[in-house]
Design goal:
39% helix; 10% strand
């Protein structure tokens, strides 16, 4: 999480959806930076309002003084990113997290069959509660960098430089059966509703308390 209330916004860090180049470009302008501990780095919308809003208020920033923003990515690709992240050799010793021996199909089925409260999901991250009532003010489509880079530069008041992230562009497509893909699409119905709002312009300001269909 990066808080820049003096510039009128806060950027929450949805796991596997926060652009490294965005963080590198704006962190030096931030008043509050939570980056290392995952439990702090990835505080969700509800936790932000509970824990950080009072802290910013002590600094003289009222909630209406800044927007709460977040990146968002294509839902099945978000899950695929988790699968790839957990295939890293350096976590091979952690049998509960390592997925090096799992296909994406197996990982997806395991995710779908996990007890519901234990499933992380992007729609819950941007919501105030388990009812999925959206509490962020602005959502950006991660895959539209020209949109969020221009917006951030305008908010900071200068042309920002966004360094190229070190990501490989040559990755094999993971295998996923059509039946499992359709199950994921159905489960991610709230996420796809949000994502559909982002397709045209690359960002969306949800109506206050908006609840995506689920």
């Amino acid at each position: 999480m990066l808080a820049l209330p003096a510039h009128g916004f806060v950027m929450l860090s949805l796991p596997k959806s926060a652009s490294t180049s965005m963080v590198r470009a704006i962190q030096r302008h931030s008043e509050v930076v939570l980056r290392v501990n995952p439990g702090l780095k990835h505080i969700n919308c509800g936790q932000f309002h509970e824990l950080v809003v009072p802290l910013l208020r002590k600094g003289g920033y009222r909630r209406r003084d800044y927007e709460v923003c977040c990146m968002f990515r294509e839902p099945v690709e978000w899950l695929e990113s988790w699968w790839r992240y957990r295939r890293r050799p350096e976590i091979e010793a952690n049998e509960e997290r390592y997925t090096g021996e799992q296909s994406f199909e197996e990982f997806a089925l395991e995710y779908l069959e996990r007890p519901h409260p234990m499933r992380g999901r992007p729609a819950r991250f941007v919501a105030m509660s388990k009812d999925l009532d959206i509490g962020v003010d602005r959502i950006f489509r991660l895959e539209a960098p020209e949109v969020w880079q221009a917006w951030l530069s305008e908010k900071i008041g200068k042309e920002l430089t966004f360094p190229q992230a070190n990501t490989s562009t040559e990755r094999p497509e993971p295998e996923l059966t059509e039946a499992t893909r359709q199950r994921l699409i159905e489960y991610f119905r709230p996420e796809y509703d949000i994502y559909d709002h982002l397709r045209a312009e690359g960002m969306w300001t949800p109506p206050k308390g908006y609840v995506p269909p689920h």
